[in-house]
Design goal:
This protein is an alpha+beta fold and 207 residues long. It contains seven helices and five strands.
Length: 207
């Protein structure tokens, strides 16, 4: 069935806004006196979900596209710097809505989950490793697929066989992948529940 962009955006916004209202813990505290953001958190999350669904990996390109195609629905859409800054404060909410939207799909019923990780290099020089704000969080790790060391983080991801995200985490590059997977399952047990049981397929670091 073909769904046009406006219909998709409206359906996503209604789902996200209703969930925000039903889950008070998702609403960030704001002072009683001050400037109220012109675009709500629910609207901004909707726009970010649209970005992912339409495959825009570059924020600048996405904002240019949204400024032409979605501006009639989100007239107060911020420029790229403001968009990025607001999204960085909505990490908890975005993680929550990944879970909510995933479980709304038929793909969720498939009994196989795929777990793997990938390096996220954050610097090349020793000076960067010492002076970066990520120092103490990022670290040195080994990338088996490229047979080299890197300094940065490691993205751990669990998906359905169709590529739909189930759970994710960013950790120090040295963190054991098996420990991260155990933590993901322990912290989000509802994301791994399936009436008939699940089959978990792991990458090279998950024997």
């Amino acid at each position: 069935m073909y769904v046009d962009l406006d219909t998709l955006a409206a359906a996503l916004y209604v789902r996200i806004d209703d969930e925000m209202k039903a889950s008070p813990q998702l609403n960030r505290w704001r002072p009683a006196v001050g400037i109220t953001p012109r675009i709500s958190d629910a609207e901004l999350i909707t726009v970010s979900v649209m970005q992912a669904l339409l495959g825009y990996h570059n924020e600048s390109r996405w904002i240019r596209y949204a400024g032409k195609s979605l501006i009639h629905l989100f007239p107060d859409l911020p420029k790229q710097p403001g968009y990025n800054k607001r999204l960085r404060t909505l990490g908890t909410q975005l993680a929550h809505f990944i879970a909510v939207l995933v479980t709304d799909t038929d793909l969720w019923r498939h009994p196989i989950r795929v777990a793997d990780s990938t390096p996220v290099p954050c610097g090349m020089s020793r000076e960067t490793a010492l002076r970066s704000d990520l120092a103490g969080w990022a670290g040195y790790g080994y990338c088996a697929s490229h047979s080299r060391l890197f300094w940065g983080l490691r993205l751990h991801l669990v998906t359905t066989v169709h590529g739909l995200p189930v759970a994710f985490a960013l950790t120090n590059a040295k963190t054991d992948e098996r420990e991260v997977l155990v933590d993901l399952v322990s912290m989000q047990p509802n994301m791994f529940h399936h009436p008939g049981g699940l089959i978990l397929v792991g990458g090279q670091g998950l024997p």
